[in-house]
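name: query_chain
kind: protein
chains: 1
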Amino acid sequence: MNDGERLVLIDAGTGTLFGSAAGKLIRHLEASGYRADQIDAVILTHIHADHSGGLTVDGEPQFPNANIHVADREYRFWIDREGLASLTAEVKKDLQRAHDALAPYIAADKVKRFADNADPLPNFGSILRPGHTPGHSSIVLKTGDGQRLVFWGDVIHGDYVQFDEPDVFVTFDVDGKAAAATRATALAEAADGRYLVAGAHLPFPGIGHVARDSTLYRFVPWNYVE
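structure:
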């Protein structure tokens, strides 16, 4: 997002963590006319590997001129390890990936934490949406005409199920029941508010509206013009 003052990236993709089928963010940025070193800020919805893994590859920061903005409670869970109920093999892997992604930015004092529901940057707000992770937050692009685009993060993982059954949660939710409650709230607010949402796991083009229908909700993709 270019707000006229800075170039802001919402989440950073997987980097090399998920194999060659993923990790194409920087290539796609360049195809769009931007370089990674032009990014002024990266705002993370949360610190799972598919959203933060692209920050750092082989120990090298991929966005050397950017500050990284992340919710304080998210940082405290993944980096300070506050509130960990158990250390399964999967959680240990996630913790290590979180450390590796943020380490060079922490060392350079480039990680900036924001409070619950606070503005990470001018023109950008946040909505705490806990459950998937403790500090999982949707990021709101504010516009002068009163419209909003809300970057959902991982409110939805399986659009073919969760729009109609929001109580279905996934095994990698840190707190599945809280994630389900968050999803129900987010869906209702998006339908009532009629604002645009962008989701990391929504079908192409990933941006659209939430509408109520006979089975509960449906996703209405934003018209895409090539």
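note: The CA atoms of residues 105 and 146 lie 34 Å apart.
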